[in-house]
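step 4 of 6: structure.
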Amino acid sequence: MNRLQTHVRRFWLEPASSDGLAFLRISVAALSLFQLATLWPHLPALYGNFGLVQWVITDVGAGDWAPSLGRVGLLLAPLGVSTMTTMYTVFVLYAVGLVGLLLGYRTRFFAVLTWFTHGLTSANAYLSLYGVDTILHVLFFYLVFMPSAGRWSLDARAGRVFTGPTSGARVALRTLQFHLCFIYLDTGLAKAQGVQWWNGEALWRALMQPQFRAFDFSWLASYPLLARVGCWSTLLLEVGYAGMIWVPRLRRHWLVATLMLHAGIAVCLRLWLFSLTMMVFNLAAFALSWRASEAPMEDGPPAQAPDAALQPV
Amino acid sequence: MRTDPSRPEGDERQAALWACIAVLHLAAVDAFLWTGLTRTSSEAAFDRGVRTYQNLSGVLSDYRFFAPAVASDSRTGFFVEQGDGSTVFEPLTSDEVEVARRYRCIVASALRANRKTQDVLAQSWAAVMLGIHPDASRVTVVTQSYTLPTMEAWTAGQRPVWDLYYTGTFGRRDGPLSKDSP
């Protein structure tokens, strides 16, 4: 019992460096700022009350108590604030939050601001959202609670936060790692239920859809076995991720293969932002902590490294 | 001289509490993904509370990207009838990949919806077009679905086609829009 307790304690509470969390904060903020700059000229069409999906449509279908642009707009309307002003104000605040996160200045406050404003805008634009927005919101939520300012931040430079390894950082990393495993398991199992992922048609269809088409892959029709192998590899990688990533000998290979999968999606399907976000998520959760676990420790042999709980005993 | 703060006192105890919260949260994520917990449309306080937590925590939907099947592509365009009787065609697209993808997500959402919701969404899109073209009297929304042949059919010579999926015409209620309209 004591041994189990020791393992659980090590697994969840062994102090860890916040490198991975800081990398996550900076990368996610940079990607989101780039995304916002890209979308900025099109905000009224995508997010505005008189855009492609009027707020009343999304607010009626929401069925929850989460705040939304529409609800904020309704609150401010009696004060003479137009819906357009409300929308731009929220997006400016979102941008300010992202800059704060990027710099690591008053990180917790700006993490809350970013998460809250992203939630407001997402609530009214969920019909236009896709994978990248879903993953970003998950990460913004986590950044509210996670100690991500311990490295490469103005807060660290100003001495406002502790910069060494903490148990809090370990809990944060474990949460990211488990969430990532759930993501791959969910998508992998769902894919495995579809015939297209067994006969190779899924890869063919994805590569040949006009919206994803980066290159002419029509030649693939002459090599269906290649498409089938591509689909099976994806299934193996995604379904196996939740198990294999915890096996020290396989972790590096699985991680590299997963990063290559996302690089392939970025290049071949033009899903750059989504792929980069997933790559950042993977690197933050596993690569940086795994690298730290292999680094020589000052106060003990490698067996006592942060990820020692994962080693076979 | 500035001194770096030392490791917070009680860090491990506080982290243990956070670990318990994290486990509960991850269990909730599991439940969102693999049970029918959030698939109900009930207005009961518990269900609304669950949906609220789901939205706030970012588990807005599942993670079944391209699963269980890769859906057909879709596109939408508008035939805008001008006051002088001429018609112009405006496709709902953008040179910016990120923006075009979002337009397609909206159209795909409409494709998955029932006819009533499709009409509501098409009306919303038509309103945007009428705003862009103040002299226009009517807008016809046309949505097409992309039918891609299988690899076998492709090698046999079959090629993709755009099938008509939805069409609806929407007019102004009170004539051309005034300049003050949003």
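step 5 of 6: annotate
 - Chain A has 15 helices and no strands.
 - The two ends of chain A are 15 Å apart (CA to CA).
step 6 of 6: archive
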